[in-house]
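Figure 2 data, in text form.
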Amino acid sequence: MTDSTSRRISRRIGAIAESATLKVDAKAKALQAAGRPVISYAAGEPDFATPNHIVEAAVAAARDPKNHRYTPAIGLPELREAIVAKTKQDSGTEYSAAQVVVTNGGKQAVYQAFATLLDPGDEVLLPSPYWTTYPEAIALAGGKTVEVFAGSDQNYKVTVAQLEAARTDRSKVLLFCSPSNPTGSVYSRDEVEAIGRWAHEHGLWIISDEIYQNLTYDGIKAVSVTEAVPEMIDRTILVNGVAKSYAMTGWRLGWMVGPLDAMKAAGNLQSHLSSNVSNVSQRAAIAALTGPQEEVEAMRESFDRRRKLAVAELNKIPGWIAPMPEGAFYVYSDVSGLLGREWGGKQINTSLELCDYILDAAEVALVPGEAFGPSGYVRMSYALGDGPLLEGIQRLQKLFA
């Protein structure tokens, strides 16, 4: 039997790695179900309920027969208009509704953006640490990931000089994420402008993931590349959604905004891939974007309080370095000071080994740096209740005292 006939799964799909964050979260939930008091900082989702007016809009939509039918694959016109208004307000850039494609969560928008732009062998410059899905989506689209790493000494933000050193004649796209998952770092306006002008000079596209755009602190604004460098509007795809700011991760509602030709191509792909997003979720998203924002602000204030608590307590652990994040709801800690040492009777050399040890010894679930780039780091989501947040860190303090 030949290799081609015996292979049951395609090489392309077989090469995809399971989402590391979801894998850790699933393991933590399984241990919790078995009765162990595991505190999980793994999943990147708010612990709050979706605001009630959004839920009520969905209930009303479910009762309306017009939402029981197919609608345009790229999204309801009313929602796309709401996204246009949101993008103008928060990203400082004006688009038409025809330049918006509504997707099943931001993750689908990320995949479709890469699939729309990349041909086999095209290179994507990927600042590291990065969200675990980016390299897999790049590979599925036939592209090649080129990592550009920035450590805690740079507050996890890459420079133009680093990007230029990584650029080749095959470079086509820069993935940009600010505020960042997993680090919570936010690029300043000057940094965004410098990167945008560099990309424009070299004819690169930018896919800008803005899913955490409205979760910033200390008066900091997440500046969009299209606002800082308007010349990049024709070569930038903005990715966003309601999941994080509105506590709507389970509603699966995201979008992509960009040049008309790219959005037409992405819409064609989606028409065969998934067709329209659930109309009920779309109606809920309209209520989220156009309705009252007080609950959203209250959630942001809670995250702000929690990040300060988490960073203050984590930095009490010898060898643990937790820079203060400026956005999102993650602390990305440098734990290299804990590696190369014996813990629990055995040598721990990687952050993957360290996270396994922490889960077994302290019943605390963290995501190792290997999921986001180099070893030596761990990601903690502080999107969980104040009590569990503090208790889990206190377990770490005792473990590494």
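Caption note: The chain has two domains: 3-49+295-399, 52-290.
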